[in-house]
Amino acid sequence: MIAETRKDIEKIEKSVSESKGAILIVDDDSNHAEGTKDVLESVGYSCDLATSGKAGLEALRKRQYDLVLTDLVMSDADGLEILREAQQINPFVALIVLTGHGTIETAVEALKRGAIDYLVKPINIEALRVRVEKALERQELKRINLDLEKRLDQKFGFGGIIGNSEAMRQAIELSKQIAETDVSVLITGENGTGKELVARAIHENSLRKKRPLVPLNCAALSPQLVESELFGHEKGAFTGANFQKKGRFEFAHNGTLFLDEVGDMPIETQVKLLRVLEDGEVIRVGSNESIRVNVRLISATNRDLEKLIKEGKFREDLYYRLKVVTVHLPPLRERPQDIPLLVDTFIKGFAHAYKKPITGLKGDVLNTLMGYAWPGNVRELKHVIEHMVVVSRDPVLKLENLPQSLYRAERRSAPDVPSLVGTPLRDVEKELIRSTLTHVGGNRYEAAKMLKIGERTLYRKLKKYQLT
Ligand SMILES: Nc1ncnc2c1ncn2[C@@H]1O[C@H](COP(=O)(O)OP(=O)(O)OP(=O)(O)O)[C@@H](O)[C@H]1O
Ligand SMILES: [Mg+2]
Fold first, then answer.
1. Which residue in 308, 320, 318, 338 sits closest to 193, CA to CA?
2. From the CA of 194, which ligand is nearest?
3. What global pTM score does this model have?
4. What CATH number is attached to the domain comprising 64?
5. Beta-carbon neighbour count of residue 35 at 10 Å?
6. What is the pLDDT of residue 148?
7. Do 316 and 346 have their domain in common?
8. Could you give the CA distance from residue 25 to residue 71 in angstroms, rounded to a whole number?
């Protein structure tokens, strides 16, 4: 038996090393599938055939493929499920879908879910060869780029995270320190502060980087689904469970599980999650058998978990398991020093992407950007810069290139007097000092000048209001 398996493996390894790439063809029209296989093998690919959706899913779990060519409509499975599984197993897999005439919408859906091309049946042999080659080339390029980016990062930074403010430097330093350990990390911060970016950077710099980072957005799922997503289910475990399905824990085995928006996880699921963390075993929904898993947990939330605990919506014991180390990402309005570097990087990136010769921005634009409160944090800033790059006709970005909302916010900066009625003078003064300082990027000299007070007076007030 073992000798058999070894032989099998050798056979696969040999065929892989000699072939131009391993391809899985999933198509329940077996004549059509055989034909496709013959064509691709004749030009040097190593192909496996699965003539049902179920067989396709099984094949994916047995061998790493460079490309998967799948029919979308099959009697026993949905081609989209094949796409999903294939990407879970190999993020660099090239995916091409086959469609019949009149099912273009499904093909579009497939493109949205990561397929890079589609072919309409019956397939033209020449088109098949060319498109497969192109798809593989594209994936290879993506891999090379990522590799290059990673090497640049190793030299210059950490996962592309930009920030030279003290708070960000500390967050990056801490993330670097713990990346190679296996501790659970909780990343906190408002929307768009870069939580996912940091999670990925930690994983990419960990010993598990060769294995996937498997994300699960806890906010987007109903309580039943969270469980089936996390732990998997057996065929027939509930209505609609037409297949046995692996859960994210199993996919993340030896890798990292990223629980995004963990504060939104239903309390019943929290209990079960905690049990898995304690036992290191999962049980699929509808099964009695436990499966050992070894995962590292990274969680992220924009909610105040301690408050949720007080309200009885989050389990305290789970909280302590998740936050062995906490990385907090402060909102952008508290670190305007980071804005110039972020802006510079985003301008370069978008100028390149949109092929526009943008070189920078006018000084007043940077002031406006640094004075704005950024409720959507870095994500919002990134979108604003993208907008400006797209609409600008000049190599230098100007105030009028700002999106309307921001332009108006800037114009409306005069204080809204009626809303201040009833506010203690002390609070108004504190807020005025705080926002002025933010506006000038923390420069006290500039702030004092704007407020028309001495620097020493400003210093005294900063201490009084604990704004240091
Ligand atoms: N420090 C940073 N340097 C470079 N890019 C950043 C930084 N922070 C965030 N970004 C970019 O901003 C966008 C939003 O980041 P990300 O998705 O990681 O935020 P998030 O905290 O997970 O947001 P949400 O709470 O909405 O899920 C991404 O495009 C990310 O690349
Ligand atoms: Mg996120």
1. 338
2. 1
3. 0.61
4. 3.40.50.2300
5. 17
6. 67
7. no
8. 8
Preceding omega of 223 cis (within 30 degrees of 0): no
Minimum CA distance residue for ligand 1 atom 12: 379
Count up the domains in the chain and report the number. Answer: 4
Per cent of the chain over pLDDT 70 is: 89
Together in a domain, 134 and 37: yes
Residue 2 banded pLDDT, cuts 50, 70, 90 = very low
Ligand 1 pocket test target in 169, 301, 379, 384 with most atoms within 8 Å of CB: 379
Q: Which of 35-44, 46-55, 155-164, 256-265 has the lowest mean pLDDT?
A: 155-164
Residue 411 buriedness (CB in 10 A; 0-12 / 13-18 / 19+) = exposed
Ligand nearest to the CA of 379: 1
- Look at 127-141, 158-172, 357-371, 432-446 and tell me which has the smallest mean pLDDT: 432-446
Does some domain include residue 98?
Answer: yes
Dig out the tokens for 439 from the structure: 């506006």
State the closest ligand 1 atom to the C-alpha of 200, by its place in the atom list counted from 1.
Answer: 18
Distance CA 53, CA 57 (A): 6
Ligand whose nearest atom lies closest to the CA of 191? 1
Domain hosting 446: range is: 417-464
- For 35-47, what is each residue's pLDDT tens digit? 999 999 999 999 9
- Residue 138 has a pLDDT of 87
Do residues 204 and 321 share a domain? yes
Placement of tokens 């670097």 in the chain = 176
- Return the pLDDT at 3: 46
CATH number at residue 351: 1.10.8.60
List pocket residues of ligand 1, CB cut-off 6 Å: 160-163, 189, 191-197, 302, 378-379, 382
Nearest-10 crossing angle of helices 30-42, 125-156:
70
